[in-house]
Amino acid sequence: MFNGLNMNMGNLSRLSNAQTRSISPENFTGEKGKGGMCELEQGSAKMAARDLGKGWKVNPYIVMKPGEVFEIANITGSGAVQHIWLTPTGKWRNTILRIYWEGSENPSVECPIGDFFCNGWQEYAQISSLPVCVNPGSAFNCYWEMPFRRQCRITLENRAEEEVTMYYQIDYALTKVPEDCAYFHAQFRRVNPLPYKENYVILDHVVGKGHYVGTYLAWGVNNNLWWGEGEIKFFLDDDGEYPTICGTGTEDYFCGSYDFEDPVTHDRYLPFTTPYSGFYQTSVDTLYKVQKRFGMYRFHVMDPVRFEKNLKVTIQALGWREGKRYLPLQDDIASVAFWYQTLPQTAFPRLPDKDYLEVI
Question: What is the pTM of this model?
Answer without folding.
Answer: 0.96
